[in-house]
Amino acid sequence: MTRKRLVAAACAAACALGAAAFALFPPRVPPEAIRTAVTRSEPLLERAWHLPAAARLRHDLVWQSNASLCGPASVANALRSLGEQVDTEAAVLAGTGRCWTGYCVLGLTLDQLAEVARTRTKRTVTLLRDLGAEEFRAHMRRANDPGRRYIVNFNRAAIFGAGAGHHAPIGGYLEGEDLVFVLDVNRAFGPWLVERARLYAAMNTLDGDRTRGLLLIE
């Protein structure tokens, strides 16, 4: 191997390791931002927990076991809320060949998560990206349909000021307040409410060369 190729290979390896470290150990969000960057009003949260999708979970979420498993944990919660017997990250990933070490190195993209979800359910799994703001609003309104579940892929930094890409189930939409109920599978954050426009802006960001978006399971 020539010196030039060795240097290129070393650079590629360093970039891969850096990306993996970023996925497994994303920038830490300060506790103050976790508390104040989103809506955590107890009366509003209690109302949100009574929305159809969230109510099926009865305040009992499957939490991600490490920073790279937000996608599988989100699928587990979405399918559980639809009455399916898939209630752990391991059950979601079984037989997919992904994350077999217990870590999804670099995390899972939205496309990869859609593939994983399709192996676990006979329901239709649709990937939605490049949505306009009004299209996103229409989907949030339909998030309260009992037979539909959404998982959103968004850039946490756009809402909390730090962090990286994240997957989370949508628990429903308080249309009167224009707030989306995000069932954050990271125990440090827990469920929260956020203005629809802010969540849309955080979703409408790039993951590599592709836009983030939604998974719809119905």
TrEMBL record:
Record-given protein name: glutathione gamma-glutamylcysteinyltransferase
Annotated ranges, domain Peptidase C83: 1-218
Enzyme Commission number(s) of this protein: 2.3.2.15
GO biological process terms held by the UniProt record: phytochelatin biosynthetic process; response to metal ion
Pfam families: Phytochelatin (PF05023)
InterPro entries assigned to the protein according to its UniProt record, in alphabetical order: Papain-like_cys_pep_sf, PCS-like, PCS_N, PCS_N_sf
Assigned keywords, A-Z: Cadmium, Metal-binding, Signal, Transferase
Alphabetized GO MF terms: glutathione gamma-glutamylcysteinyltransferase activity; metal ion binding
Signal peptide (residue range): 1-23
